[in-house]
Design goal:
The protein is 30% helix and 25% strand. With 499 residues, it is α+β, with helices and mostly antiparallel strands. The chain has 2 domains: 272 residues, Aminohydrolase, N-terminal nucleophile (Ntn) domain (Glutamine Phosphoribosylpyrophosphate, subunit 1, domain 1); 173 residues, Rossmann fold, CATH 3.40.50.2020. The strands form 6 sheets. It has a 9-stranded antiparallel β-sheet. A 6-stranded antiparallel β-sheet has the order 7-8-9-10-14-15. Strands 19-22-23-24 form a 4-stranded parallel β-sheet, sandwiched between helices. Helix 4 packs parallel to helix 5, helix 9 packs across helix 10 and helix 9 packs antiparallel against helix 16. The longest helix is centred in the middle third of the chain and has 15 residues. It is globular, with a radius of gyration of 23 Å. The termini are far apart. Bound molecules: adenosine monophosphate. Adenosine monophosphate binds next to helix 13.
Length: 499
């Protein structure tokens, strides 16, 4: 049995932990980076837990380490969370325990706080303002100061997760109403947060003033009563629920849903710098984020990449799945045929036991296999979304060449990644980012490609904006961060070098 944590069930005063084995999840591929988190909320649905489950299922790509669902029925606020995939944790039996017509849910890969069960979300906290459950996507950057300050005021933290800071700030706020206390607390935290919160009888949804992470609102029309209101990190989650997308929660907006309907306030002035990497890599192509379909952005990235860095070749081949949509755009623009020259095995899970661990490139070979008859004797343009450490690209270029390709040209649908992200994307430190420490020619030599080109920053911005007038955070490509606070550990060596 997996580890599960049960909280707030009638007749059970303290949380129960059931399960066996390690309480942390391990990932099968240490080379691979990980995604961040997905959040959902459901208001006014007779089977809210199951709706949250379906929505989380659609957001599984945003985090595979742990998942949780909290429900409320006006009296109780119960929470179940566990380590693993959504479908592994939430069996029929587990979902049946979660009663109520409101739910919030979370799927996680940790970027702050370790990965233990206690840090899984939603986090449920009994506070002076009543019971609150919170689910958070993003990363706060002024953590240290706030935590020390709160602890001096007597706050007792249950987790090491940054998300609990928000709840503790609410609990310690001098504001008299809950909604004022939430607004108060959100004004004090800096960084990225798309959050959903639930009390016994209300749901809240909010985005940080920069709108780093996406968060959308939708509705299910009920013929005999008030609508079901839903929130999700990405609109692909609405499709499974048959909910209709209504709008994005705006940067700096706090939305409250009660039995009386939806109300909203701008708790802080917006200053949009949405994460452009959501369009490059994270979000699903069937989602609309920041008012633009991800599929459209990626196809435009591919088209622009073809315009900027044409090369004569026989086939355009995507690195699946992350390079597929950009490769379609590249092939259309360059009029070079598109083929699936690499096939991905979708069943490589975290539990796979590698029989020949020491075999070189085994991890990549397990996941990707070349289609030899397509590649042999051909000049190949390989398209991927990004190079971070360079390890994946090097292995894939070698694989394509070994399958008989005469030339391998790598094209990347974003600019070189030169700076870490502090807003919820799990990137390594600057010293590990290959483009932070090498020229493009040096990277080309390392990955052994015949040519290498990246999409320009302007090209990427135009592809992702699509005339919407969106402003983006591009700090991973420029090193210019839109907030004051960033991780000092990464900055100190640079400062020391300058001094
Ligand atoms: P690397 O081998 O470190 O250069 O990683 C590059 C590969 O990781 C590319 O194939 C990307 O699709 C993928 N990737 C980039 N960013 C992330 C991320 N934050 N989470 C998971 N995978 C990523």
């Amino acid at each position: 049995m997996r580890w599960l944590l049960f909280e707030g069930f009638p007749g059970e005063e303290s949380p129960t932990i059931l399960g066996s084995g390690e309480q942390t999840a391990s990932t099968s591929d240490p080379d691979k980076l990980h995604e961040e988190c997905g959040v959902v909320a459901i208001h006014n649905h007779p089977d809210a837990a199951r709706q949250a489950y379906l929505a989380l299922y659609a957001l599984q790509h945003r985090g595979q380490e742990s998942a949780g669902i909290a429900t409320a029925d006006g009296t109780h606020l119960s929470n179940i969370k566990g380590m693993g995939l959504v479908s592994e944790i939430f069996t029929d039996e587990v979902i049946a325990r979660l009663k109520g017509d409101m739910a919030i849910g979370h799927t996680r890969y940790s970027t702050t706080g370790d990965s233990a069960l206690l840090n899984a979300q939603p986090i449920r906290v009994e506070s002076t303002k009543g019971l609150i459950a919170i689910a958070h996507n993003g990363n706060l950057v002024n953590l240290g100061n706030l935590r020390v300050h709160l602890e001096r005021q007597g706050a007792f933290f249950q987790t090491t997760s940054d998300s609990e800071i928000i709840v503790q700030l609410i609990a310690h706020s001098q504001a008299t109403t809950l909604v004022d206390a939430i607004a108060d607390s959100l004004r004090q935290v800096e960084g990225a947060f798309s959050i959903v919160m639930m009390t016994r009888d209300r749901i809240f949804a909010a985005r940080d003033p920069h709108g780093f992470r996406p968060l959308s609102m939708g509705r299910i029309k009920n013929p005999d009563g008030p609508d079901t209101v839903v929130f999700a990190s990405e609109t692909c989650a609405f499709d499974l629920l048959r909910a209709k997308y209504e709008r994005d929660v705006l940067p700096g907006e706090l939305v409250m849903v009660t039995g009386d309907g939806v109300t909203s306030r701008q708790y802080a002035p917006p200053n949009q710098t949405s994460c452009i990497f959501e369009h490059v890599y994270f979000a699903r192509p069937d989602s609309m984020i920041f008012g633009r379909w991800v599929q459209e952005s990626r196809e435009q990235m591919g088209r622009q990449l073809a315009r900027e860095s044409h090369v004569d070749a026989d086939l355009v081949v995507p690195v699946p799945d992350s390079g597929v949509t950009a490769a379609i755009g590249y092939a259309a623009e360059s009029e070079i045929p598109f083929r699936f020259g690499l096939i991905r095995n979708h069943y490589v899970g975290r539990t796979f036991i590698e029989p020949e661990q020491r075999v070189r490139d085994f991890g990549v070979k397990l996941k990707l296999n070349p289609v030899r008859n397509l590649l042999e004797g051909r000049r190949i343009i390989l398209i991927d979304d990004s190079i971070i450490r360079g390890t994946t690209s090097r292995k894939i270029v070698r694989m394509v060449r070994q399958a008989g390709a005469t030339e391998v040209h790598l094209r990347i649908s974003c600019p070189p990644t030169i700076s870490p992200c502090y807003y919820g994307v799990d990137t390594p430190r600057k010293s590990e980012l290959i483009a932070a420490n090498n020229t493009i020619e040096e990277i080309r030599q390392y990955i052994e490609a015949d040519s290498l080109a990246y999409l320009s920053l302007d090209g990427l911005r135009n592809a992702c904006d699509g005339g919407e007038g969106n402003k983006f955070c591009v700090a991973c490509y420029t090193g210019d961060y839109p907030t004051q606070w960033v991780d000092v550990e990464d900055i100190l060596p640079a400062v020391a070098a300058v001094v």
